[in-house]
Amino acid sequence: MSERGGDNGVMSLIVAFSVAPASPDEDGSYAEAVAAAVRVIRDSGLPHETNAMFTNIEGEWDEVMAVIKDATMAVAAVSPRVSFVLKADLRAGVTGAMASKVSSLESHLQ
Predict the structure, then answer these.
(1) Are 50 and 38 spatial neighbours (Cβ–Cβ below 8 Å)?
(2) What pLDDT band is residue 45 in, cutting at 50, 70 and 90?
(3) Residue 72 in domain
(4) How many domains does the chain have?
């Protein structure tokens, strides 16, 4: 599959991504393992934002998917079983959509 498309030749990908060990640590928390994944995402340099349920990450296909794999493997390093969910928006010729989609929504709420 080609990563090229649209006006500027870039296929931008936004992924809402959640990863967690299949079972909590001895304190009943998933936070330490999830923090390892978020650390990978933050260190990637790609645009991202983390909320209570997901981390959104934006970039080109190969770079985003590589970060998701690395984040998943960070959790797998502390858990023999890992669960992850992702939802993606692939769009040709658009960059910065993670911010512009929210701005568009906000303009309609005023």
Answers:
(1) yes
(2) very high
(3) yes
(4) 1
The residue segments making up the domain with residue 87 are: 11-109
Q: Is residue 34 part of a domain?
A: yes
CA 28 – CA 49 distance, rounded (Å): 25
Q: By C-alpha distance, which of 65, 41, 45 is closest to 54?
A: 41
**CATH number for the domain that contains residue 49:** 3.30.70.930
Span 7-29, pLDDT tens digits:
556 678 999 999 999 887 778 78
Tokens at 76, concatenated: 């797998």
pTM higher than the cut 0.85: no
Contacts 24+ apart (CB under 8 A), 51-54: 53/18, 54/16, 54/17, 54/18, 54/85
